[in-house]
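4.2 Preliminary Data

To establish feasibility before requesting continued support, the project team ran the inverse folding procedure on a target of 200 residues. The structure was first converted into the token representation described in Section 3, and no sequence information of any kind was made available to the design step. The complete token record follows.
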């Protein structure tokens, strides 16, 4: 009796192992390689450390093959997508403009790299009357913050600010905004000017 029970337990464990292996549920398949374009890493230093994660520029989309070609520096990554793939900041995969920055969370399914989430870098829509050109900013900087009644905020990561910034600019990385918000909105007469490494 004892030998029968032991045999059943061993056979059950072996069947469970085979089922997990064939479905890709074993831990070795859970963490897939990550890659991030060097332009992404300037602001998001953790991108290449996240498992199952790719970040780069969209090179091309094939709706027939349900694939995306993602350029990560000089390499080209091919990622599949299907009806279960979630897309953020674009109506559909086919609507993502070429050379747009995207980040993709993916899994291995049926031997293919399948995108679970494709997130398009969202542009900022700023009304024209709220935009300042380089000449306007230069005139204010020449006056200085007190005379010009402005505060110039550099929203890039702190390491980029330390490498070089516009004179009179104050470092305020995006994540620090909430901490400074109350102080920033106290004086309504001071013009706030934000800039970053891209469109601000």
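Position-by-position output of the design step:
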């Amino acid at each position: 009796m004892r030998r029968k029970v032991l045999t059943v337990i061993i056979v059950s464990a072996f069947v469970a192992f085979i089922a997990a292996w064939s479905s890709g549920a074993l831990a070795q398949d859970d963490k897939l390689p990550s890659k991030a374009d060097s332009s992404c890493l300037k602001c998001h230093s953790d991108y290449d450390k996240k498992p199952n994660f790719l970040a780069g520029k969209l090179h091309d989309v094939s709706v027939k093959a349900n694939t995306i070609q993602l350029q990560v520096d000089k390499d080209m990554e091919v990622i599949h997508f299907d009806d279960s793939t979630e897309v953020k900041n674009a109506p559909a995969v086919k609507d993502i403009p070429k050379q747009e920055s995207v980040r993709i969370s993916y899994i291995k399914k049926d031997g293919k790299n399948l995108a679970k989430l494709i997130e398009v870098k969202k542009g900022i829509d700023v009304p024209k009357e709220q935009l300042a050109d380089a000449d306007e900013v230069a005139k204010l900087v020449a006056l200085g913050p007190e005379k010009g009644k402005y505060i110039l905020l550099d929203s890039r990561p702190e390491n980029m600010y330390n490498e070089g910034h516009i004179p009179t600019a104050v470092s305020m990385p995006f994540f620090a905004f909430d901490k400074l918000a109350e102080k920033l909105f106290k004086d309504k007469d001071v013009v706030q000017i934000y800039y970053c490494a891209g469109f601000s």
